[in-house]
């Protein structure tokens, strides 16, 4: 079986853009309609690795995705950040004034609302996927209709960008993680970041004590996210990301937190890929 990379969405999506930039080669893509389908692709061996959005600089953490990684014991083996540049695109030869409708994912429309409000004649139509809309415009040769999406989608479906970078907040980054079902051994000297999950006893100062251990061991906490434990009201699991210069510092912190925590799990140890 040829190795595949699973993504949420279709070719031309931001997930596909990450594959092209992270792997630096054109790989076989398994296009998944949802993040649940993406996980199934890994679990069933249909794909070897997967790219999953995990955090946005504006919207915050995609909490259900943390839960999917944890529940199915997937390994985070890498990460990648891309700026989310939303572009309005249509069939070649059309101007912005000739566009009557724009079709895109509701989140993409919201991200571009300041720009779109300047053109009240354009009807906004919600769709399930940004790249799929671009593909449909190309396949059906739809005039008067534009899509909003990545420059990769415009290039792939031969559409003309009639208005570039129309998102309201210009500095909008999304962090993606690279996932594997099978264990991937990464050399210790290349590991500079870890994603961890732990559960603490519900008593005063327990979280502060763990955070102090991280600080004392020279770890930099880049992310902390709490998630309620469904079966136990008012108890929480914590998902954290830490970076470090020396693996031995991380190893020391890990050994102490394992003792302190009621439950402890490593979601991934990998190379830090800063913005």
Q: What's the assembly state of these chains?
A: single chain
Helix content: 25-40%
Radius of gyration: 21 Å
CATH architectural category of the largest domain: 3-Layer(aba) Sandwich
Biggest β-sheet: count, sense, barrel? Answer: 6 strands, mixed
CATH class of the largest domain: Alpha Beta
The CATH homology group name of the largest domain: Periplasmic binding protein-like II
Characterise the protein shown here.
Helix content is 29%, strand content 33%. The chain is α/β, with parallel strands linked by helices and 275 residues long. The longest helix is centred in the C-terminal third of the chain and has 14 residues, at 247-260.
Which secondary structure elements does this structure contain, and how are they paired or packed?
Elements: E1 4-8, H1 14-23, E2 28-32, H2 35-43, E3 49-56, E4 60-61, H3 63-71, E5 75-83, E6 87-90, E7 101-104, H4 106-111, H5 113-116, E8 123-126, H6 130-140, E9 145-149, H7 151-156, E10 160-163, E11 173-180, E12 193-199, H8 206-216, E13 220-228, E14 236-243, H9 247-260, E15 263-270
Parallel strand pairs: 1-2, 1-3, 7-8, 7-9
Antiparallel strand pairs: 3-4, 3-11, 5-11, 6-9, 6-10, 12-14, 12-15, 13-14
Write a short abstract of this structure:
With 275 residues, the chain is of the alpha/beta class. Helix content is 29%, strand content 33%. Helix 8 packs antiparallel against helix 9.
